């Protein structure tokens, strides 16, 4: 099939995609009216009993932490605010419209990643330099990859291999095979639905670090940072940004490693809550990617690069594992015998130092893993060692921890 025919099929699916539900469109119109009152919004919301029930259930959940049960829509509107009501309605409406597309590809990974990004965006929203409404941040994160869903529904035979090939840049593969990227399709769909322009920009440019960090798109920057956390938290739907890109994204957002660690922990409950309340078909309703009943491991990060050590240590702690000091391992201090994993950063040492380190580590029972990108050439003699990129997911870490020690 030619690129032209593929593009025509994608555009046809977009044109025939169901519009947002009528109640959602009415809410958008009323909320956009500067003279609208809470009573006006409540009246529209009450016209759809299913949506009204979801809003009441959500506002009474631990997600919002209200002290007394909310039993009326009018009270819920006051507590949530106009933007909160708008974003909830948009969230429910967009998911309902998307799921009517159906499709043959299992999109569980898509929804897991979307929920994780939304939760991370919401948790980080109060801490970025240019603060964003947390509800708006959640919705932007939830919808950032919406174009991928459209591509999966429009050309499943072409898009499924693209999703399955983690070794290749997703955007490059989409351009070559589909003639357009999920980012472009997502922006087009959100424009068709007449959502705020910032949402479309976040969908289009969350992979474009230069645009996300140019100071004009704070919501895009926030969603791009959240995308990194979603990759850490969930797994393999998307590949995280490079180390240099992450540094730039965090600097632009004004976020510290303390914010990142707090967000990784705070995402858990929000993901579980929103998966349940939004009734997303195919998404896990529990805590995505958590260690569950797995025991905490004791890990050592061997590097002289303070920034890389702080990042790797932050991820390990957020995943429930214990950190043991590098110096204590080398000195055979008390507790060193309990170390399960030694994460070695080979880029900070000479070949001779690396060989000496490997000789020492070979006497230990711990698993040894390289902290380096999969495409990078490993040191001589370390070709068979497992490796983790600087931005590693819970799943990838668990694969290393459960692999047999050579």
Describe the 3D structure:
This protein is mainly alpha-helical. The chain folds into three domains: 1-12 and 101-289, Orthogonal Bundle (Hypothetical protein af1432), CATH 1.10.3210; 18-96, no CATH class; 298-402, Response regulator (Rossmann fold), CATH 3.40.50.2300. Helices cover 58% and strands 4% of the residues. It contains 20 helices and five strands. It has a five-stranded parallel sheet, covered by helices on one side. The radius of gyration is 23 Å and the shape is globular.
Task: Describe the secondary-structure layout.
Elements: H1 3-16, H2 22-32, H3 38-46, H4 49-59, H5 73-99, H6 108-124, H7 134-143, H8 146-154, H9 156-164, H10 170-178, H11 182-192, H12 197-205, H13 209-212, H14 218-233, H15 243-253, H16 257-278, E1 298-302, H17 306-318, E2 322-323, H18 326-330, E3 341-344, H19 351-361, E4 367-371, E5 387-388, H20 394-402
Helix pairs in contact: 1-8, 2-3, 2-5, 3-5, 4-5, 5-7, 6-7, 6-14, 6-16, 7-12, 8-9, 8-11, 9-10, 11-12, 12-14, 14-15, 16-17
> What is the strand tally?
5
Largest sheet: 5 strands, parallel
How many alpha or pi helices? 20
Number of domains: 3
For the record, give the distance between the C-alpha atoms at the N and C termini, rounded to a whole number: 48 Å
CATH superfamily of the largest domain: Hypothetical protein af1432
Poorly predicted regions: 281-293
Q: Beta-strand level of the residues, as a percent range?
A: under 5%
Tell me the structural class.
Answer: mainly alpha
Q: Shape, please?
A: globular
CATH topology of the largest domain: Hypothetical protein af1432
Q: What strand line-up does the widest sheet have?
A: 2-1-3-4-5
Radius of gyration: 23 Å
The CATH architecture classification of the largest domain is Orthogonal Bundle
Which CATH C-level class of the largest domain is it? Mainly Alpha
**SSE string, helix = H, strand = E?**
HHHHHHHHHHHHHHHHEHEHEHEEH
Helix residue percentage: 55-70%
pLDDT averaged over residues:
87
């Amino acid at each position: 099939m030619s690129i032209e025919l593929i593009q025509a099929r994608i555009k046809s699916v977009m044109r025939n995609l169901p519009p947002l539900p009528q109640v959602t469109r009415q809410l958008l119109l009323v909320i956009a009216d500067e003279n609208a009152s809470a009573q006006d919004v409540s009246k529209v919301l009450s016209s759809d009993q299913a949506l009204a029930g979801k809003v009441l259930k959500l506002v009474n959940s631990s997600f919002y932490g209200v002290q007394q049960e909310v039993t009326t829509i009018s009270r819920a509107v006051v507590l949530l605010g106009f933007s909160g009501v708008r974003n909830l309605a948009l969230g429910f409406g967009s998911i309902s419209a998307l799921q009517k597309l159906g499709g043959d590809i299992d999109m569980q990974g898509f929804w897991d990643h979307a929920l994780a990004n939304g939760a991370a965006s919401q948790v980080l929203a109060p801490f970025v330099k240019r603060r964003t409404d947390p509800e708006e941040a959640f919705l932007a994160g939830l919808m950032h990859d919406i174009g991928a869903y459209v591509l999966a529904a429009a050309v499943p035979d072409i898009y499924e291999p693209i999703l399955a090939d983690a070794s290749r840049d997703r955007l490059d593969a989409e351009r070559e095979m589909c003639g357009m990227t999920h980012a472009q399709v997502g922006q087009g769909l959100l424009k068709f639905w007449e959502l705020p322009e910032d949402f479309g920009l976040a969908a289009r440019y969350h992979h474009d670090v230069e645009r996300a960090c140019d100071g004009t798109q704070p919501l895009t920057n926030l969603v791009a940072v959240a995308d990194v956390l979603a990759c850490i938290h969930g797994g393999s739907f998307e590949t995280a940004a490079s180390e240099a890109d992450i540094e730039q994204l965090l600097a632009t957002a004004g976020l510290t490693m303390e914010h990142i660690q707090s967000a990784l922990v705070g995402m858990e409950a929000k993901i579980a809550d929103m998966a349940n309340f939004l009734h997303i078909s195919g998404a896990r309703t529990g805590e995505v990617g958590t260690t569950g009943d797995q025991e905490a491991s004791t890990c050592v990060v061997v590097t002289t690069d303070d920034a890389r050590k702080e990042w790797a240590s932050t991820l390990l702690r957020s995943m429930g594992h214990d950190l043991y000091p590098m110096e204590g391992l080398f000195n055979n201090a008390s507790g060193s015998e309990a170390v399960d994993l030694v994460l070695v950063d080979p880029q900070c040492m000479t070949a001779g130092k690396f060989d000496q380190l490997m000789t020492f580590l070979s006497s230990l029972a711990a698993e040894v893993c390289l902290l380096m990108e999969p495409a990078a050439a490993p040191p001589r003699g370390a070709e068979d060692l497992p490796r983790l990129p600087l931005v590693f997911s819970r799943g990838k870490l668990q694969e290393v921890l459960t692999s047999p020690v050579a």
